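Final report, Chapter 2: Outcomes

The project's central promise was a pipeline that accepts a single protein chain and returns its three-dimensional structure in a standardized token representation, suitable for archiving and comparison. That pipeline is now operational. To close this chapter, we reproduce one record exactly as it appears in the project archive, with the input sequence first and the structure output second.
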Amino acid sequence: MNKLNKVLTVFCIFLFVIGIISPVFGVTVADPGAGTPSPNVSNITSKVWGTIVTVVQVAAIAAIVFAGVRYMFASADQKADIKKQTVILIVGAVLVFAAVPVAEFISKVASDIF
């Protein structure tokens, strides 16, 4: 596993953990002097989370496409290495795309319990 794959794996795990934690700690912050509540912190967090997830999903698909292009232009010796890297990329993409529903499910269950 090269350094980029390790960094992407750690980044995906970080995003998954943030997705689980953000609904738990999201609270409404009110300004007592203004009389109207300020924007909901969990709403802002969910928008940021949605943007990050979208960027990571696009990056996962782009990495798979890039690996496919590399495979098409590779020599016979390089194709075996590219196949191994592509399997890792596909597993990473599945994790990225599965992280969102799993995080939403855990958030919903946690909000129902508490």
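Archive annotation: The two ends are 41 Å apart (CA to CA).
This record, like all others produced under the grant, will remain available to the consortium after the project formally closes.
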